[in-house]
Amino acid sequence: MAEPEATGLSKDRLLELYRQLATIREFEERINVEVNAGRLASFYHLSSGQEANAVGVCAHLDNPADTIVSNHRGHGHCIARGADVQAMMKELCGSSEGLCKGRGGTMHIADIDRGLLGANGVVGGGPPIAVGAALANKLRGDGGVSVVFLGDGAVNEGAVFEAMNMAVVLSVPAVFVIEDNKYGEFTTGAYMTGTGDLRARTESFGLGVTEVDGTDLFAVHEAAGSVIDHARRGNGPAGLICHAPRFHGHFTGDPEDYRPEGEAAEARRDSDCIKIFRARVLATGQLTPDDLAAVDGAVTEAIDAAVAAAAAAPRPDPVDVAADVYVSY
Amino acid sequence: MAEPEATGLSKDRLLELYRQLATIREFEERINVEVNAGRLASFYHLSSGQEANAVGVCAHLDNPADTIVSNHRGHGHCIARGADVQAMMKELCGSSEGLCKGRGGTMHIADIDRGLLGANGVVGGGPPIAVGAALANKLRGDGGVSVVFLGDGAVNEGAVFEAMNMAVVLSVPAVFVIEDNKYGEFTTGAYMTGTGDLRARTESFGLGVTEVDGTDLFAVHEAAGSVIDHARRGNGPAGLICHAPRFHGHFTGDPEDYRPEGEAAEARRDSDCIKIFRARVLATGQLTPDDLAAVDGAVTEAIDAAVAAAAAAPRPDPVDVAADVYVSY
Amino acid sequence: MPVKDMRTAINEALRQEMEADESVFCIGEDLVGGFGTDCGKDQGNAGSFGVTAGLYSQFGGKRIMDTPISEAAIIGAAAGAALVGMRPVAEIMFADFVTLCMDPLVNQMAKFRYMFGGKTTCPAVVRLPCGAIPGSGAGPHHSQTIYALMTAIPGLKVVIPSNAYDAKGLLVSAIRDDDPVLYFEPKALYTESCDVPDEPYAIPLGEAAMPREGDDVTVVAFGAMVPAAIAAIDSLATEGITCDLVDPRTTSPLDEEVILESVEATGRLVVVDESPPRCGLTADIAALAADKAFWSLQAPVKQVTAPHAPTPFATELELAHIPSPERITQAIREVLA
Amino acid sequence: MPVKDMRTAINEALRQEMEADESVFCIGEDLVGGFGTDCGKDQGNAGSFGVTAGLYSQFGGKRIMDTPISEAAIIGAAAGAALVGMRPVAEIMFADFVTLCMDPLVNQMAKFRYMFGGKTTCPAVVRLPCGAIPGSGAGPHHSQTIYALMTAIPGLKVVIPSNAYDAKGLLVSAIRDDDPVLYFEPKALYTESCDVPDEPYAIPLGEAAMPREGDDVTVVAFGAMVPAAIAAIDSLATEGITCDLVDPRTTSPLDEEVILESVEATGRLVVVDESPPRCGLTADIAALAADKAFWSLQAPVKQVTAPHAPTPFATELELAHIPSPERITQAIREVLA
Ligand SMILES: Cc1ncc(C[n+]2csc(CCOP(=O)(O)OP(=O)(O)O)c2C)c(N)n1
Ligand SMILES: Cc1ncc(C[n+]2csc(CCOP(=O)(O)OP(=O)(O)O)c2C)c(N)n1
Ligand SMILES: [Mg+2]
Ligand SMILES: [Mg+2]
User: How many percent of chain A have pLDDT more than 70?
Assistant: First the structure.
């Protein structure tokens, strides 16, 4: 017999978490392939390497009133929150069957029915929105929380500070998940943040902050659990900092001139949250190689299907260019 | 013989500092009289009670490259920085001989030749400007510093946080002087600032912060000296928090419904920086009652003259309404 | 009918909509006052202009809440709360400060529905006291109108009432509307009164009013310029010159029909706004006529606006900045010359 | 003459003005790249569009500096540095993000000189890559033009080059100008080339260009719409329809004279901009003509713009959003009908 205590999660749960990790990875890597092959025209911010942040956090959002607010690097958050990958892939292709009818694209994926209040093209645009959703949770007393994902570059936007302070003052169940991948575009977080001590700075606003290794899904899962629980119980906002590398450039096509030679390859080798997850569950024996292979197969199939469906999906009609600007006008 | 060590300042210096304190007080109180008498039409943010902040800080700005950036409650800062009180009073009356030709008024007093980069009607508008002026100091290597005054309400504006962080990142000689008078308009700073611990929050950006009793000119003077010296020597930005009450409402005409009964009267009685200054210099014997009376007399005369000059000053010509929008157009 | 000033009319609309719908709440700076103090009263000053007086006593701190001085967070929070179905009414103390919350207004609220594929609504209202109060010397940072900038933004609706009656009915509609609405309150009109029914009523967004009817010239005016235009028009009436006065009431959506019908009838158009002239509402209306009513136009289309300059402090300059009835009269005469 | 693309032309203007004047410096996000890393190279990516390539190697970190992602602080700092006599050239990575620094632009820089009594100058330049790159799917937050909003603001100057030659000469003037200048760079044109002299030259702000001359219609177009208008006009020339094409190059100040003279000669006007229609540049120009060239006008003034909608992501929708040469051709035909 294996040691299930090692993770404290059931086999079904582990399979589901793994499915999410693998789906995000496959989704992102396939976009990269499609872009390189010239089959996708826009620029995409891929989250390979950071999957465990999204999955570990969203695993705790089981109240229908829970919401997340994502950012430009949002595919992983959306998938972890349960957005349909076919509808997402169609959106990335600009199909009228895309999750946003092809009007938003990669940086604006939203699925209001799943409490996904939108990726965001504006760095730092999300946190105030999450404070508002959390305020709604509080006013309604529905037990929901609102989680916002932001990067280690976004933390220096004024609106982010305002949001943190206001969340504390209004004591709303907002959770700020800061994904530290060491870069904001081509510049390091270490350079951009005065003290380099993001945790102390965030805490000084009056938020308890937990810092965690984002390459370890179990660590993220556990920490996110307490942080979200804290907010859900009405104790006000909280913060979580997840450290995990991004494997790709800032966007597809980034020449990465600013990045030390071999840094990304090294991260793929030593700091891959999926490898780490696999090693862990195999070591504890909770999952077998066959279990994992089965998920891998299903995931590849799902993404294959999504890519194929997206390629064949209907294109928007140009006459709809100004549809849905208003509910009524 | 008295004990000059008690303050460490020469008699001339003390007389000058007292002249500034008394000038600001007289200026502000006279505006209040003029408003109540219906002779001034706008709304004015008076700084009575907070004079020592302005005077104690500006006393150290002896490099011609030094600048200050003020806020809506700026009369005191301007006077301490050496702006002409007649030209200021004319400005407050909207005369074309006002410091800004009557176009800016109470919230936009500026005197670029004295390094006074403007009061500001936008709460939190000043700090980024000061960072820019300090960046100029650094790039030019002129030994100057830029000091910005902001309130305990302004500290929650996003631009203020951005400015603090950027000042640290670019390591510029900017000095943030936070005047804590316990209110932002009709709401307390304690309510508006998440933790209530403004010092810790400011320090978390990477600024050393000194906190001081703003009713004690000598304390402000000393603390401001080291803080400004720190920045001037190229050690990056620094902060100073001065606690001192405002004697008036937020603006002239404020009904002050939000203020506990008697709070202002108590502050006038027990926390008046001018009374405290007088008691101190009289106790040490550095100044005599006659010395102070002479200053008082001169100040009253100067303000009388300013009020009279302002009342008689020429009015702007309406045809100039669109003059000076551009250098050339 | 009871006579009320615009401040009271707005207050009444807020109160009645809050009574009618639990999801309506107010958020902003100093709407209540006294948060964190022990002022021994139910509330402090109730805002810079007293518009929110009494709401805290009636509804408490869960329905009307003061915030830190953080405009971006206030409007961003309103956006987020509205996106999940609440009906926030946020206040920006002076319209001049939209400079600090343009992102949640322009990039977030305005674009949610479109960029999310038509699947969301954002029923937020933002109240913005705007414009100059002639003689108050509010100066360059406390006098701007801002509404033309917002009219330019697809996804936002823009309301500018010109009297207390409209102010109430339009705010009721704005709160009930499922799109984000910027509701501008011309500060100069807060103390102006007219008949205002006690009961709630809604004036549809997108329907112009026509406070004066005439034959010779069409005058279109916005907000605080409506009373100025009425003064100008009434003075000319004694000379036998009569004008249609169109008050669009909302600039987005805009009631093009009423404007165009009037211009087609009169053949002459004067557009009046207290904002500076470039890329503004007056140009917008003039251009509309130059396209769609071109064949009816019998004279140059005149715009009466502030100069291309910030709003000055000194009373003489401030009065020269704001279009006066005299300038409107002169423009009407010009298009008739 | 050497052929260069607009990106190179802008880079050259920056380099030459930095060489000529010690007080010129560049500040923004990722202008250099690699700050804080040990990338083993002189610089990283040199901006999202490579416009600042090579400047760090030549001038070092005191003349070109990367900042935190803090637009308000960047532009506020540019304002402060300019107020004390430096000549900062700040970049906002995408014009869409002016929403985050409207206050230093609109309430500070723009108003300093006026509200301080004409005693200060603020020689700051803000560079803003703007507009859509057709087919790039940049979407609602990375495609806006914004320049009309800025043209509305008294105190700001607004430049919109339409080709590499003008881009260089206008940027040189912008940097040497003592007023704050917003310099918009239509992203769609970065890779468009034309003859650009190696030596520095200045094109005065406020002087329109006339890239096409004709008799039948006046077309006024801005930025990326100038090449689209040229395509439309050239295609009509084969039918014997000839047009004046006015490229204002700067919208504030605006060269009213050239526009009005042309309209007086042709009697017909089409105005083209890729921004949405309300309170925009096309309305501004149309209204100008409807007032000051009214008696010459022989047909309705047509505006060709984007619809009143955000910029969509999908290529088909994006292309429907941006005015095409076909739509311009059609508008020209309409005013001739
Ligand atoms: C307001 C704003 N400024 C700048 C940008 C350009 N930009 C896009 S992503 C990015 C870096 C963000 O860094 P971080 O928050 O660390 O997120 P990461 O990309 O590392 O996931 C920047 C500067 C933007 N989209 N919005
Ligand atoms: C951006 C902005 N928001 C709101 C206001 C309105 N306002 C003027 S002063 C003030 C309070 C400022 O408080 P604090 O910074 O403590 O300065 P104090 O008035 O106490 O000197 C407010 C909210 C403003 N002028 N600017
Ligand atoms: Mg990052
Ligand atoms: Mg205060």
Answer: 98
